[in-house]
Amino acid sequence: MILSKILLPRSYRKIGWILFIHASILGLLALSVEFEFSWLEFNGFRDGAFLESTEENFTNEVAILSLFLNLFFIALAKKKEEDEDHQKLRLDSILFACYGYFILNVIGAIMFYGFDYLTFMSFNMFFLPLLFILRFRWMMFQQRKFLCLVL
Q1: Is residue 96 classed exposed, middle or buried when 0-12, 13-18 and 19+ CB atoms within 10 A define those classes?
Q2: Tens-digit pLDDT profile for residues 4-34
Q3: What is residue 8's DSSP assignment?
Q4: CA 145, 149, 151 angle in degrees (round to 5)?
Q5: CA-to-CA distance for 91 and 78, rounded, in angstroms?
Q6: Phi and psi (nearest 5°) for 57?
Q7: What confidence tens digit (pLDDT) does each residue in 33-51 have?
């Protein structure tokens, strides 16, 4: 069981889900109503041009990094019992997620242009782990349902 040695401990999944909900709310607020935490505002963090204000707020960056970290925790935490079937489902799901990600990128490159493409790509960066999680959970659900029918 080589794969189970590199997976995160099981408790990380619960932490990931709890923090994912909070990070999603923060991301949506920051995107829709331009919500910002005042304590994440820094002056002179990056050098700007002459007479240009360098005030910068890092609420968006915190939301994005938190979403990535939480999706990482959810996707790569161990199941209660890891076996070869779970490993195969994980590998199949990651391959499926990669195909979906590449197809979505091609469709997005054809359909969007300019600032819309940048917005599309900012949402698209979360698509790969989300698709993996959804596919893996769906396959686990199907497997459990099939086993209950057989028994």
Answers
A1: middle
A2: 678 889 999 999 999 999 999 998 898 888 8
A3: B
A4: 115
A5: 14
A6: -110, 135
A7: 888 877 777 776 666 555 5
